[in-house]
């Protein structure tokens, strides 16, 4: 039996979601650009942390035929509402907004909620100029998730 994208996401712990987002930034599948949300320039596909997270979970490498948002769901065989909320959740997380992640998006699709541990206001908003130190703050948040 094949496990669907939706099943994989719903089986993830908060720690795994956070580390997935970090991995999507540290080792992107397609060219990372936080100013795009799945676009093609000169035949090169660009995506943010959320787009790369979808690629990592699904094993699908987006190309110029399916990189646009409205094709993501079809490409990974997931319901449009689910993929949209997943990507918005990851976008919120990479922006340092745990409340939006938890209450606006993860809650709507049943994803693991991130436990607040007291330093979420220090989470950086990741951009194209992200640093390893910024990612380390997210890794610290992930580590606290298993201690609850």
Describe what this molecule looks like in 3D.
By secondary structure, the protein is mainly α. The protein has one domain (5-145). Helices cover 53% and strands 6% of the residues. The chain contains 7 helices and 3 strands. It has a 3-stranded mixed β-sheet with strand order 1-3-2. A hairpin with a 2-residue loop joins strand 2 (39-41) and strand 3. The radius of gyration is 14 Å and the shape is globular. The mean pLDDT is 91.
Q: What would the average pLDDT be, to the nearest integer?
A: 91
Shape call: globular
The residue fraction in helices comes out at 40-55%
Order of strands, main sheet, comes to 1-3-2
Please trace the helix and strand order, writing H or E for each element: HHEEEHHHHH
- Unreliable stretches (pLDDT < 50, length at least 5) are none
Task: Give the tally of β-strands.
Answer: 3
Classify the beta-strand content into a percent band. Answer: 5-15%
Number of helices: 7
When the domains are counted, the total is 1
**What composes the largest sheet?**
3 strands, mixed
| Radius of gyration, whole Å | 14 Å
């Amino acid at each position: 039996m094949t496990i669907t994208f939706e099943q994989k996401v719903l089986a993830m712990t908060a720690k795994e979601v956070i580390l997935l987002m970090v991995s999507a930034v540290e080792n992107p599948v397609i060219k990372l650009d936080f100013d795009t949300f799945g676009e093609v320039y000169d035949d090169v596909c660009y995506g943010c942390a959320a787009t790369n997270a979808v690629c990592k979970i699904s094993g699908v490498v987006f190309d110029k035929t399916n990189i646009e948002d409205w094709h993501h769901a079809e490409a990974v065989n997931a319901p449009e509402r689910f993929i949209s909320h997943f990507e918005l959740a990851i976008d919120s997380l990479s922006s340092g907004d745990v409340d939006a992640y938890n209450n606006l998006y993860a809650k709507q699709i049943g994803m693991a909620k991130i436990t607040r541990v007291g330093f979420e206001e220090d989470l950086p908003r990741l951009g194209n100029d992200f640093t390893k130190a910024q990612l380390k703050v997210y890794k610290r948040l992930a580590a606290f998730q298993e201690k609850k």
